[in-house]
Amino acid sequence: MKTTFISTNSMSAATRQALAKVQQQLADAHLEMTTSRYADVGKTLGYKAGDTISLRQEFARLNTIIDTNSTVTSRLKSSQSVLQNLVDTGRDFVGQLLGSRVGGASALNVKAEAQSRLDGFIDAMNMAFGDGYLFAGVNSDVKPMADYFSTPASASKQSVANAFFAEFGIYQDDPAAANISAADMQTFLDTTFSDLFADPAWTSDWSSASSQNARSRISSSELLETSTNANESAFRKFAQAYTMIADLGVENLGQPAFEAIIDKATQLVNEAIQEVGDLQARLGISEQRVGDASERMKLQVDILTRQVKTLEEVDPNEAAVRINQMLTQMEISYALTSRIMGLSLLKYI
Question: What mean pLDDT value characterizes the chain?
């Protein structure tokens, strides 16, 4: 025959254990009512918890790419702004060049303007974005171009002086430059001087940028070039045009040689403007593709959100009903515990 030991202590302990369980369930229900999500997703979903983990991982991955695309779009817009400024200042400079063919004092004016434009061009090539430079290519942490008019003389300025001396036997500030013929100047501009803006001279004396453009992952399956770099032909032509006016001693040249430089610079700036237009179109296409990719991923994120909610979502109204039921249960348990604790054999002796 089996007997069961019964006492007020054991009955009270059992009640307290049941009460503690209800309190935990009440806390879970409060959390579910607040978040509309299971308090313990793994326990509730069981083997399906793996599905919600995978969905949330994909959700996070897509949102990371969307956030990165936002930064890429900002960088593309900044690049477009710089390029448009180069076009605008280039057009203005062409107008000044065409008006400077009278020579004399205007040569000094156009030289000063070219020096300013060259400084502005180099500043544009060194435009920073975030922790890097817009026109550095994949060498985004390296400043693309050095100051041409720095002290001591930059490599680019020294190479121009050396080339001029090698060609004419004098430096640019020598009054004897007035004896340089238009034909000789044209030959110099088309050969020796032009070579200073071609490789390897350009990448050794002028530019530290990489010719490889930065690429960005704009979706799960797309890698896209999302930058340009200071080694593009258009930028070399801007530098060449501004430098020949700024640093070939135009104020000392005779009118024929001066006009040869003016005509060459005008040609180069016009070509550079055309090529920058091509770069703008290329970056514009990239910007459009980035935007399209982000919109597609946002749709995917919405679908994933609905799938996760289907698995994890709790009806807050149902949770509120459970809370009321558990509060009633706890009130009964407290009352019962109080009555049990009040029981004593002494009352019956």
Answer: 85
